[in-house]
Specification:
16 strands, alpha/beta, nine-stranded parallel sheet, five-stranded parallel sheet, about 230 residues
């Protein structure tokens, strides 16, 4: 083979390497983006949002979160076709910080994980191919830290109009209103082909319903661990 032919062949191989998704980055690890473990003074919310943006921009569909406790103050809106994978129940823990900011919006203060295209019961878009597995979500570290006057995050996972979504091996501790909720809105897509398995929700008695003074209307509402 001549040098010219060799260089042409090498160029074609390199072009194929960078062009075909087979050789693309398969996942992103949260530890490479400055997240801090086991430090309740550090809010990892911004770091996790940067990870999601990076994954979207680079067409990466798996985000791995290593072992440790990660403190946050806001929830995350997941794009379709994404997998959030921890190291295991009680190994990877997403825990809200003390003194959560007062609830001001539905987009980031409803659940720790929800969909980006459908995050509200008023949305009609669908949430597709989202997988959340192998982690613990701790909404309140203990009841003494739950400030009723500054009530914020409602629950752990809420997927609106979900299709082909999976919630697997998740433990949710002390959600004020719901642990896991999969909902089909009246004008939205059907809630179809979803899987919830190996999940545990531990709830205190009706914190959400006992708030005083009331800051959110609660007529005919309830607190539910897993709601479909």
């Amino acid at each position: 083979m001549t040098k010219i032919a060799y260089r042409l062949l090498l160029g074609l191989i390199l072009h194929a390497f960078v062009s075909f998704p087979l050789y693309a980055q398969k996942f992103v690890n949260a530890k490479d983006f400055g997240v801090v473990t086991n430090n309740e003074q550090i809010d990892n919310s911004v770091a996790f949002k940067m990870i999601l943006l990076y994954a979207q921009k680079n067409n990466i569909h798996i985000i791995k979160i290593p072992e440790g406790v990660f403190y946050i103050s806001k929830g995350f809106n997941l794009p379709n076709d994404i997998t959030i994978e921890g190291a295991g129940i009680n190994k990877t823990v997403i825990r809200v910080i003390k003194n959560l900011p007062a609830r001001t919006d539905e987009y980031s203060q409803t659940a720790v994980f929800t969909g980006m295209h459908a995050y509200s019961l008023a949305d009609s878009s669908s949430t597709r191919n989202i997988v959340i597995r192998n982690l613990t979500i701790d909404l309140q570290k203990d009841s003494a830290e739950f400030d009723l006057s500054r009530f914020s995050m409602l629950g752990g996972i809420r997927l609106i109009n979900p299709i082909n979504c999976i919630v697997d091996s998740i433990k949710i501790i002390n959600p004020p209103k719901f642990g896991i909720g999969l909902f089909a809105t009246k004008d939205g897509k059907l809630c179809t082909d979803n899987t919830i398995k190996n999940c545990t929700v531990i709830m205190q008695d009706n914190w959400y319903l006992q708030l005083s003074p009331e800051i959110i209307p609660r007529s005919n509402e309830s607190c539910i661990g897993i709601e479909l």
